[in-house]
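Recall that a protein's primary structure is simply its ordered list of amino acids. Everything else, from secondary elements to tertiary packing, is in principle encoded there. The following example makes that idea concrete.
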Amino acid sequence: MKKSRLFSLILSAALLPVFTPAVTAQNLFAQVATVDDQVVTRYEHQQRIRLLEALGTIGDLNTIALDQLIDERLRLGATRAVGIEADLDSIEAGILEFAGRANLTPDALLAELARDGVAPETLRDFIATGIEWRTLVRAKFSAQAGISEAEIDRALSQSGTRGSIQVLLSEIIIPADERYIDVTEPLSRELAQITTFAGFNAAAKKFSVSGSRAAGGQLSWTPISELPPALRPVVLALEPGEVTEPIKLSEAFLLFQMRQKAELAAPATETLALDYAVYRVAGAGTDAGDKALEKLKNNTDTCDDLYGAAKGQPDGVLAFETRQPADVDADIRYELSKLDRGEVSTALTRDNGETALFVMLCGRTVDAAGAATGDREAIRSELRSQRLASLADGYLAELTADAVITRK
């Protein structure tokens, strides 16, 4: 996790005159929404935004955070009405599982979140609400979520013939590190308002730092399965000509414009593992840094060539990784999705824009998505989870319709 910009703003706020905190505290606990007789405060809203930032959530975090908190008030009302409340052991187990996804201990996770300005209580409340809601959903809908043998047979028969969706996109990538963010953040919002292909093409040539800049940001056909999972619904929601809201990926803002999408009859493929190399080049954006990147491009045809380039360089300059896609940083995974074996990307930076990343794809392990495994119980479990999720969504929609919700 990277230290967020909001965390820096919090530190700056601590330097204000001594009379300011009283006003700030009052504002923090002002209402931003009400759900029947329950209140969502500005403090909770800000905390959820920081949590979403730390977790790398994509989209309009202000809206996402408020929507989540309103939904959680509805869930809280439903669980408390039947006496469901997560105990301390369940919450701690939930935090342990949550931390394990990032290969961290609970204490290390809380410390990382604290550096992003997230209070421990914010994560605990988030975990507790999820546990309580799942407990209620299982108790309420378990009898309706049974899966028949015929349904498993149907899932097995369909899994090998499912078509894959490919998308034809254009992209704009602009820096989002501290040196430029006061300019590029409003610029990214302005670019998101583009409504024509020509306008997006011109903006990409003028502003984008991606390798696709010269082509007006135009990318070749890309299987949707190659995009990071968090990006897929965002992209699939686009109609031709539409542009996404700015998507924050580490130190860059990313915008897509949909040019075309198509469904193929061939089975979809899913990436099981990515083999790639990252070479760190100091002086991003400087003449020396640009020359170093160009030299790497000219002298590197395969990942093995990078060993020679790194000879005599400090430890940590070159890293080779083999990871499941979910474990790859979202911005690096997105760049890898555009590459064939031996191709490179130089669009990304680290260290607040000071270090350029030379990212090369060494290989990609793929398998047919949804291929029949013969594991009927695993398929039963997946289908049951999907049905429970659908029933839970329907129940939440009922709660929403019956509630009096006000956004301030």
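Residues 218 and 389 are 37 Å apart (CA to CA). Residues 1-25, 158-163, 368-374 have pLDDT under 50 and may be disordered.
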